[in-house]
Amino acid sequence: DARVTQTPRHKVTEMGQEVTMRCQPILGHNTVFWYRQTMMQGLELLAYFRNRAPLDDSGMPKDRFSAEMPDATLATLKIQPSEPRDSAVYFCASGLTGLAEQYFGPGTRLTVT
Amino acid sequence: AQSVTQLGSHVSVSEGALVLLRCNYSSSVPPYLFWYVQYPNQGLQLLLKYTTGATLVKGINGFEAEFKKSETSFHLTKPSAHMSDAAEYFCAVTVINKFYFGSGTKLNVKP
Fold first, then answer.
1. Of B43, B94, B103, the CB nearest to A104
2. CA–CA separation, A85 vs A106, rounded Å?
3. Which residues of B touch A104 (CB under 8 A)?
4. Do A104 and B45 touch (CB under 8 A)?
5. Any CB–CB contact under 8 A between B5 and chain A?
6. What gap in Å lies between CA B61 and CA A91, rounded to an integer?
7. Most buried in the list A20, B30, B91, B103, measured by CB within 10 Å?
8. N- to C-terminal Cα distance for chain B?
9. pLDDT at A1 over 80
10. Most A CBs within 10 Å: which of B9, B33, B44, B46, as the mutation test of the A interface?
11. What DSSP string describes B22-54?
12. Torsions phi, psi of B100, nearest 5?
């Protein structure tokens, strides 16, 4: 049963600390998406990769957020320094060009105090 | 510009009643259309999708949706609601590999 995995599932940290979230896309998928979900803003696209190359990161605050794909099996989202307004659930999704749909991971719930 | 509008952030139905969740989209090119469901503390799960072909598509858990180009709509329906259908539902459009999600509709099912 192929699925997207995300670690950690929950993270509580203090303001100013670095946070790293990891995502393992479904094997063979070549597109990866990072989303942030909050009550106020709903689901926001932060970044989008195809074949490990960033195609769109216009939704990501550039000064503190960074997203990378070191290899085809790992995507990372870093926040440095973290702020309380970053508290949200961060989802990773993967897909395959031509299939159109995305498959979501269970999310990382981040709380910044 | 592409966008997705879901009418009604909260919908409440009785168990056994018809479920109708509305979605309208705007797109300059033929879109692909999706419905996703999110249960509490979980990620989004694909319910159904329309790409091409038959405009009435069936998904998991008894849900179906009809693509109506003239109305730019893709409403989600289920003939008889179950308690287990209580969740948040998202309509999404993809155009040229970019996804646009609606703001979501929370479905409450009353006993």
1. B43
2. 21
3. 36, 43-45
4. yes
5. no
6. 24
7. B91
8. 41
9. no
10. B44
11. EEEEE-SSPPEEEEEEE-TTS-EEEEEEE-SS-
12. -130, 120
- A96–chain B Cβ distance below 8 A for any pair: no
Distance CA A1, CA B35 (A): 21
How confident is the model over A71-112, as pLDDT tens digits? 999 999 999 999 999 999 999 999 988 667 899 999 999 999
Residue type present at position A86 = D
**pLDDT band, residue A26 (cuts 50/70/90):** very high
The interface residues of chain B toward chain A in range 47-106, judged by CB-CB distance below 8 A, are 49, 51, 90, 94, 97-99, 101, 103-104
Please answer yes or no on whether B42 and A106 come within 8 Å at the CB atom: yes
Sign (positive or negative) of CA dihedral B61, A26, B54, B23: positive
